[in-house]
Amino acid sequence: MKDITNILKTKSDLSLQKKTVLNIAYSSICFKDGILMVLKPFDISIEQFNVLRILRGKHGNATNLQDIQDRMISKMSNTTRLVDKLILKGYVKRFVCKDNRRKVDIFITDEGLELLNRLDPIIDNKEHELTKNLDSSELETLNHLLTKLRD
Fold this sequence. Notes:
Layout: H1 4-8, H2 16-39, H3 46-56, H4 65-71, H5 79-88, E1 92-96, E2 104-108, H6 110-131, H7 136-150
Antiparallel strand pairs: 1-2
Helix pairs in contact: 2-6, 3-5
């Protein structure tokens, strides 16, 4: 188990706060890279994957860009661009309301659902691999502490 100071190859005496922030940032990058490697063969980004999961959670009901944006993990994502790319790949459909052209309904396609069904076990395995060094109790504690940090 490498300490963050060893990973960064620093001899500096880091404050506990700085060490914590660096540990979280480094871990986040490691997790993101791990998930990206799983998604890469499917030509889909983490953000696109997140949009598809949001749409699947609608259980066939329409949603709009604002709702997707509100549910995104990364609030910096350009939701319109993400949806446009998913439409080009055939995973999402968008319909403009006849009565109100400003209202756009977005749905996941059968192809999008099929992709998620293929990805679910692969992502589950990767998540288990990424968290395998912690037992259930430690994972509960970590989740509690991360939530506490964000509040």
